[in-house]
């Protein structure tokens, strides 16, 4: 696992904390690939490091971070790496040490969660999609009519067609390593989710 990682606990846990692990520690974790946006609103710095290690309130986090925690928890993954929280942002020595490890962070992650459609940390990526792209089908007789929702047209993620190229995250050069070094990625796009393994 990386040097620092968020302990996000189980499904119902509201409190999160930043934990440090000795070099060579092993375990499953997810990593978030995201656009920060124009403001760095929620980071770890030398002034709040001790507080982050004690507790971080889920409800105070930006929406993209909350969405990533929800996805991680739904897979039973209790640890999440987010660069802006797991690297001390105002400590140049820490940044130099930890930034060179990002290749390993994304390669060793059990799952990389790509917030492809989110333009910033505050926007989130689990928002509803456009309704005109969804077909609803109801069936059954009597009082109960289950409804299923289907995407009108699914696009494959192939080397020849990249439906993610116009997403905000994939317009950023620094996100290239996060996309191509990850072993398993869930890309949350504007129109659909893509699984890449």
From TrEMBL:
Residues 29-178 form the Heterokaryon incompatibility domain. Pfam families: HET (PF06985). Signal peptide: none annotated. Coiled coil: none annotated. InterPro entries: HET (IPR010730). This is HET-domain-containing protein. It comes from Hyaloscypha hepaticicola. The lineage of its organism: Eukaryota, Fungi, Dikarya, Ascomycota, Pezizomycotina.
